[in-house]
Amino acid sequence: MHLVLVDGSSFIFRAYHALPPLTRKSDGLPVGAVSGFCNMLYKLTEDLKGEDEPTHFAVIFDYSGSSFRNELYDQYKAHRPEAPEDLVPQFPLTRSATRAFNLPSIEQEGFEADDIIATYACRMRDAGGKVTIVSSDKDLMQLVDDKVSMLDTIARPGQPPLRWIGPDEVVAKFGVTPDKVVEVQALCGDPVDNVPGIPGIGIKTAALLINEYGDLETLLARASEIKQNKRRESIIENAELARISRKLVQLDCNTPVELDLDALVRQPLEAKLLIPFLKAMEFTSITRRIAGLLEVDPDDFEADAELAAKGASIPGAIDVSEGPAPASGLSGPDAHAEAVLEKIRAIPCKHDDYEIVRDAAALAVWIEDIVATGHVAIDTETTGLDNQAADLVGICLATRPGKACYIPLGHTTGNDDMFGGGKAEGQMDMRQALDMLRPVLQDPAILKIGQNVKYDMGILARYAITMAPIDDTLLMSYALDGARNNGMDALADKYLSHTCIKFTDLAGTGKNQLTFDKIEIEAAARYAAEDADVTLRLWTILKPRLVAAGVTTVYETLDRPLTPVLARMEARGVSVDRQILSRLSGEFAQRAAALEATAYELAGEKFNLGSPKQLGDILFGKMGLEGGTKTKTGAWATGASVLDDLALQGVPLAKTLLDWRGVSKLKSTYTDALPGYINARTGRVHTSYNQASVATGRLSSNEPNLQNIPIRTEDGRKIRTAFVAAPGNVLISADYSQIELRVLAHIADIDALKDAFEEGQDIHAMTASEMFNVPIEGMDPMVRRRAKAINFGIIYGISAFGLANQLGISRGEAGDYIKTYFARFPGIQDYMAEQRRIVKAQGYVSTIFGRKIPFDNVNTKNPSERAFIERASINAPIQGSAADIIRRAMIRMERVLSDENVPADMLLQVHDELIFESPADKADQAIPLIKRVMEGAAEPALRLSVPLQVDAKAAQNWEEAH
DNA sequence: TGGTTCACG
DNA sequence: GACGTACGTGAACCAG
Question: Which intervals hold domain 3'-5' exonuclease (predicted)?
Answer without folding.
Answer: 354-547
